[in-house]
Amino acid sequence: MNKILVIGNVGSDPEMRYTPNGTAVTSFSLATNRVYTNASGERVEETEWFTVNAWGREAENSNQYVTKGMKIYAEGRLKTDTWTGNDGQARFRLQINADRILFLDRSGEFSQNKPEPTVQDTAPNNQANVPEAKSAEDIEDLPW
Predict the structure, then answer these.
(1) Cβ(28)–Cβ(62) under 8 Å?
(2) Which of 20, 122, 130, 21 is nearest to 64 (CA)?
(3) Among 6, 48, 90, 102, which is 20 to 30 Å from 122 by CA?
(4) CB proximity list for 74: less than 8 A, separation 6 or greater
(5) Which residues 6+ apart lie within 8 Å of 29 measured at CB?
(6) Burial (CB count within 10 angstroms: exposed 0-12, middle 13-18, buried 19+), residue 131
(7) Is the pLDDT of residue 124 over 90?
(8) What is the pTM of this model?
(9) Which is nearest to 77 in space by CA: 57, 98, 52?
(10) What DSSP letter does each residue of 73-99 carry, written as one string?
(11) In the predicted model, is pLDDT for residue 43 greater than 90?
């Protein structure tokens, strides 16, 4: 089974395009952060970057409502894209082919150009809403 769930901050405004058969695809970057204290007692922050690809209706919603800086929940399948750059170096990118995207920020926190739907607006009626993420410090105290 290949399933990934991430909560992070959008790093770029979405870009929408269409496949030859007319299916909408929207892509944007997403950063997740992890903060921990190392053995020396120093506070360390790590950032992991993903490219999120949304398809169909999720692509249209993402293109309309997602903006750089907003917090989202993305759920889908992880795919690694590898290639050789012009300099001959091997490169890779972590991609999430998203089945579900939830907008976790409250209205009015970002650009007034695009209205921000709430989690309740985007979640199907028969599924529980994802709770708002805790800070990285709070997550470090969790037992798992």
Answers:
(1) yes
(2) 122
(3) 48
(4) 4, 5, 6, 7, 8, 30, 50, 52, 96, 98, 100, 101
(5) 10, 11, 12, 49, 50, 51, 52
(6) exposed
(7) no
(8) 0.68
(9) 98
(10) EEEEEEEEEEEE-TTS-EEEEEEEEEE
(11) yes
Exposed/middle/buried for residue 66 (C-beta within 10 Å: 0-12, 13-18, 19+)? buried
Report DSSP letters for 3-29, one per residue.
-EEEEEEE-S--EEEE-TT--EEEEEE
The amino acid present at 121, given as its one-letter code, is D
CATH classification (class only), 4-140: mainly beta
The Cα–Cα gap between 41 and 97 comes to 37
- Amino acid residing at 55: W
Residue 125: is its pLDDT beyond 70? no
- pLDDT at position 106: 65
Question: In terms of C-beta density within 10 A (0-12 exposed, 13-18 middle, 19 or more buried), how is residue 12 classed?
Answer: middle
Residue range 53-107, pLDDT digits in tens: 999 999 999 999 999 999 999 999 999 989 998 999 999 899 999 999 999 986 4
Which CB contacts under 8 angstroms, 24+ apart, belong to 132-137? 132/104, 133/7, 133/71, 133/73, 133/104, 136/33, 136/34, 136/35, 136/45, 137/35
